[in-house]
Design brief:
The protein has about 290 residues and is α/β, with parallel strands linked by helices. It is about 50% helix and about 15% strand. The longest helix is centred in the N-terminal third of the chain and has 22 residues, at about 1-25. The two termini are about 30 Å apart.
Length: about 290
């Protein structure tokens, strides 16, 4: 039964991607946004987003909260519809700010790039491997459906420029090998990781992988924050920030500093973050 469900889901995704590919990136993004904001707010998952928002921004009004959830679903719908166009978007639909920070490090030097599930987060590794010419490996979570995973991989890595490493203990060992060889790794640091450490995020402890901090300390390499921001429709801004100041900090201190920066990005555009994550333990909060 599970196998049948997986195949049916993959067929639906394949059909949607085929249609989105035909109509082009702008129309696809627009249709995806409409579907997201029309269907998403009615789903039970919005309750989780609402609770997370209220705990992160206790002063947010009900009207602001509902508007943020509505716009979050719009963004998620756009992200899905933009999958067949990632290669086109990264070359034709983005503006880049702060490349001098990457130039100072050196695109072919070894470093760690950090980001979050903001705007269209799939553009983060695309930026690294294409405009930035800083070929890198990306840590990601494998979808449960293997057929959908295959479809997403075809969109994420059309020319096999990147190596996508599953988030796991084995993946951490692979990261070490890559950095030992002088490579680069991109990491979205805002997912819950039960084997991690409780690091404060929006005022509450959140189980967090500290691998990016561990690797930075172990290899003495910088952490380069890269922010993706949706400007309007299918247009984006990629901002390369100065390397994280890690002087005198231990793993926890580095992760706290990274979280503070991520909080700032999210606070400026809250609707562009994935509030559906079970980022915090919900016991007693829902």
């Amino acid at each position: 039964m599970k196998q049948f469900r997986y195949i049916l889901e993959a067929l639906l995704v394949w059909t949607a991607f085929a249609v989105f590919k035909i109509i082009g990136p702008d129309a696809a993004s627009s249709v995806g946004g409409w579907l997201g904001r029309t269907i998403g707010p009615k789903l039970a998952a919005s309750r989780k987003a609402r609770n997370n928002l209220k705990n992160a921004f206790p002063d947010m009004t009900e009207v602001e909260c509902e508007k943020t959830i509505h716009d979050m679903w719009d963004n998620l719908g756009r992200v899905f519809a933009e999958y067949p166009h990632l290669h086109d978007i990264i070359y034709n639909k983005i503006e880049i700010v702060g490349m001098e920070h990457l130039d100072k490090i050196g695109a072919r030097s070894s470093f760690l790039a950090m980001g979050g599930h903001l705007a269209n987060w799939e553009l983060f590794p695309f930026f690294m491997n294409y405009p930035a010419n800083a070929d890198s490996s990306c840590i990601y979570r494998i979808p449960n459906n293997p057929y959908v995973a295959w479809l997403l991989d075809k969109c994420r890595n059309p020319e096999k420029k990147a190596r996508y490493i599953p988030k796991s203990m084995a993946g951490t060992k692979d990261m070490v090998k890559i950095l030992q060889a002088g490579g680069r790794i991109t990491i979205l640091i805002d997912q819950k990781y039960n084997q991690g450490q409780p690091i404060e995020f929006f005022g509450r402890p959140a189980m967090t992988s500290t691998s990016i901090a561990q690797l930075s300390l172990k290899f003495g390499i910088p952490i380069l924050p890269i922010q993706v921001e949706r400007l309007a429709g299918c247009k984006f801004r990629v901002m390369v920030h100065p390397p994280l100041d890690t002087n005198g900090l231990d793993e926890t201190g580095i992760m706290l500093s990274a979280h503070r920066l991520l909080e700032d990005w999210i606070a400026k555009r809250p609707a562009q973050w994935l509030w559906l994550h079970r980022r915090w333990d919900s016991k007693g909060l829902e």
